[in-house]
Amino acid sequence: MTSSATSQQPDRVRLVTLVVAGLFLGVLLGWFPYQHWEFGARSSVFGGILKKAEQDSEWWFCLVTPFLVAWLIQRMSRSLKQLPLDGSWLGLPVLLVGMLFYWFGYKVDTAYPGYLAGQLLTLGIILQLGGVTWLRRLFFPWAFLVFTWPMLPLESVLAVPLRMMTAKASGMVLNLIGVPVLQEGTGLLSAADPVKGLSAGDLFQLDVEEPCSGIRSLFSLMMLAALYGWLSLKTWLGRGILFASAIPLAVLGNLVRMILLALGSLWWGSDFAIGRNIDGHQEMSFYHSMAGFAVFGVALSGMFGMATLLENKVERGRPVPKPAAPGAGSTAQRAWLNLGVTVLVLGGGLTLCALSDASYKVGPLGIEPHMPGIVGPFVSTDQPMTAREKAALLEDVRIERRIYTKPDRTILATVVMSGAEKRSIHSPDVCLPAQGWQMTSESMVSLDLGLATEVQATMKTMHRDIMDDQGRRMRVRAVFLFWFLGSDGTTCAGNQEHVWRTYSDAFFKNINHRWTMLTFFVPLPMEKSLLEDPFAELAALEDTKAFIRALVPGMLVNK
């Protein structure tokens, strides 16, 4: 700190500023009851992250991140002491937006706006109290803080593409080295061998589930790559390249894992390589667990090798950017003013939250889920939840499902009822590709259920290629209709509309929907010739509309 700045800003001002800022962040993120994480009592943002880590150990690295941020700042403490507090009014709009997100998340009882608020409020505090020079010095620790927040929506968006990529790459490598396999969505099956009397999947069946997709290791590897790049490399170019390399390295690590599992199943059997399925629960074998270490072994080796390469090839000879010289600093009076504004915004936001009606009451189901055994000419058989579905979904999610058939048509009708937690229903946009279906087209259709207004639903036409017992490839086509039904009879045609309606109705109407997803899967007849019937989809749609008109109105609670 310059002598001028020292005279203008006594140590008392700096100490009070830092203590008050830290205290408010602690209250906002670590103490204030923010969300019903387990729908018993509210707990803080950090308390919710702790609960998530206890439920899923893949997110434990989130709890380590704040301590790493504190360590990074401590390493800068000597240079930070030389910086005067030169607060900028650019921090005020950031603080206001951050508190709006915080209040919104509190009101609708969801964590993600709170995560964004934590990031924005930290940025606003740095700008409002320290100024632009402080932000330049603290930019990396502030950006690194993003790894504190569990990225569950990002996980669901990226998981299926990564699973598909891993399955496809693993299949290509295995076929290349002489192990014939078939890919069906995110699954790998040993190919049929008519000579040996083996059907597809007799030797092994592997599914690239989320833990094997690379998505969970990706987040922790990105955190390690960012930290290691900051500590070992000196230019932003090298750090950026190393950070971006975490994505292909995570995929490569999981590719090696899948190949090891496939080869182990082929040589020693699935029970040895993968483990046994006991009452629907997959018990991993020792070999399976050890293969999991290949992910981090390959990825970390690649990351260290990439850092060495960047240090020798990219950074050598490049000038190291120098930090900007500190300004003269503002007066003590202005520092107190900046602190007062910060306290006013943060305290006002907390008061607004405390005064808001944020009682969380999950609405009732908008449907009577029990489907009749006979609907017109259709007769049906019940299809209960599978053990795999029970393991993948939350405990309070229910599925009612029946296969309705008549001589010329089969319809699989499914009613998926969410639990208390928002977004506990999986999206068809995620589930169908994972099962190997490729989307041909998507459109909106109107359904006449005899109500005041027609219901809008999403129709997907899709196909998948399968192998018969003789090793011949066959194409299966299908039509899939779905929509979402809220507690008060609200309907949404697609998943994005359903997510938006969840939060908007919780905020503006104080309605927390318990959503129901209604789906209707209609396989199309197999064609004997290679030509596809252009009218098959239209006929299936009309039959399904008539079936829905006969089935659904009697199940609705709000008519």
Automatic annotation (TrEMBL):
Q: Which Pfam families match?
A: DUF3485, Exosortase_EpsH
One GO cellular component from the entry?
Answer: plasma membrane
UniProt feature coiled coil, ranges: none
Q: Give the InterPro entries listed for this entry.
A: Exo/Archaeosortase_dom, Exosortase, Methanolan_biosynth_EpsI
Sorted UniProt keywords: Cell membrane, Hydrolase, Membrane, Protease, Transmembrane, Transmembrane helix
User: Does the record bear Nucleotide-binding in its keywords?
Assistant: no
Domain Methanolan biosynthesis EpsI residue range list: 343-487
Localization, UniProt: Cell membrane
Query: What is a GO molecular function of this protein?
Result: peptidase activity
The answer, when asked if Cytoplasm is one of the entry's keywords, is no
What residue ranges are annotated as transmembrane? 12-34, 57-73, 85-104, 116-135, 142-162, 214-233, 240-266, 286-310
Membrane topology (UniProt): Multi-pass membrane protein
GO biological process: any one?
proteolysis
Q: What is this protein called?
A: Methanolan biosynthesis EpsI domain-containing protein
Can you name the source organism? Answer: Brevifollis gellanilyticus
Classification of source organism: Bacteria, Pseudomonadati, Verrucomicrobiota, Verrucomicrobiia, Verrucomicrobiales
